[in-house]
Write a structure and sequence with these properties.
The radius of gyration is 19 Å and the shape is elongated. The protein is built from two helices and four strands. The strands form two sheets. The chain has a two-stranded antiparallel sheet with strand order 1-2. The chain is α+β, with helices and mostly antiparallel strands. The chain has two domains: 54 residues, no CATH class; 41 residues, no CATH class.
Length: 103
Amino acid sequence: MLQVVMVSAQNKSFEEIVTDYHKSKNFNGVVLVATNGKIDYYTAVGMADRNKGTLIQKENKFKIASVTKVFTAVMVMKLYEKGLRSRDCKITTRSCHGRIRRP
């Protein structure tokens, strides 16, 4: 399950939050926090393969299932808002020709 945790200067540090989630909720994964394109925090925690005892590395790839659908939908709507793509254009089409008319 994907969760977003907001952290302010008065609260716990990113490291403390990741450690707490790893210990109490058995979180295993990579955490990257960025502000305006600048990385504030980047770490990996937990096991990639429990049977082999392999630790997760920042470079590991993960299957994120249906979460990518949300990102794709948001990006399509952003392009639509900017007038760069029609909502009816197939996602596999590199570009849609013609003027985009909005309702």
